[in-house]
């Protein structure tokens, strides 16, 4: 939601940074981490936006080709299978491999940065399973 602030001779939209606030209106840094405001405002390289949108664009192209060759039911069935496979996970305190979703999307045969950098299973810090389940279920 951008409010308009008036300056002498100019009207500029104000920038609002969204954050996840806890019960008392304070951001919960223990669960969400610290905010990096600079990375949310500007991109570091012109190709960064293209790389972020590469997989969704490939998926749209694949679904369009499927719809043109096999009809409307083929992309709908594939989307439904992917949605069901993305819901299969372990408890929130345990890392999930999401092997079924990777197999359906065809990314199980490729090794990318997300496969070996910042993997949740390699973390030295563990979380309390009871607290994470209460947080996930909204009982906190």
Automatic annotation (TrEMBL):
<dbReference type="GO" id="GO:0005634">
    <property type="term" value="C:nucleus"/>
</dbReference>
<keyword id="KW-0143">Chaperone</keyword>
<dbReference type="GO" id="GO:0043248">
    <property type="term" value="P:proteasome assembly"/>
</dbReference>
<protein>
    <submittedName>
        <fullName>Proteasome maturation protein</fullName>
    </submittedName>
</protein>
<keyword id="KW-0647">Proteasome</keyword>
<dbReference type="GO" id="GO:0000502">
    <property type="term" value="C:proteasome complex"/>
</dbReference>
<comment type="similarity">
    <text>Belongs to the POMP/UMP1 family.</text>
</comment>
<dbReference type="Pfam" id="PF05348">
    <property type="entry name" value="UMP1"/>
</dbReference>
<dbReference type="InterPro" id="IPR008012">
    <property type="entry name" value="Ump1"/>
</dbReference>
<dbReference type="GO" id="GO:0005737">
    <property type="term" value="C:cytoplasm"/>
</dbReference>
């Amino acid at each position: 939601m951008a409010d308009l602030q008036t300056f002498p001779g100019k009207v500029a939209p104000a920038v609002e940074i969204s954050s996840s606030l806890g019960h008392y209106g304070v951001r919960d840094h223990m669960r969400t981490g610290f905010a990096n405001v600079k990375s949310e405002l500007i991109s570091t390289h012109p190709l960064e936006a293209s790389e972020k949108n590469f997989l969704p664009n490939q998926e749209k192209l694949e679904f369009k080709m499927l719809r043109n060759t096999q009809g409307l039911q083929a992309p709908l069935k594939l989307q439904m299978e992917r949605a069901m496979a993305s819901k299969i996970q372990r408890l929130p305190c345990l890392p999930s491999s999401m092997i079924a979703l990777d197999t359906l999307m065809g990314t199980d045969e490729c090794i990318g940065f997300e496969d070996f950098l910042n993997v949740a299973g390699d973390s030295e810090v563990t979380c309390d399973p009871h607290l994470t389940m209460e947080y996930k279920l909204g009982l906190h």
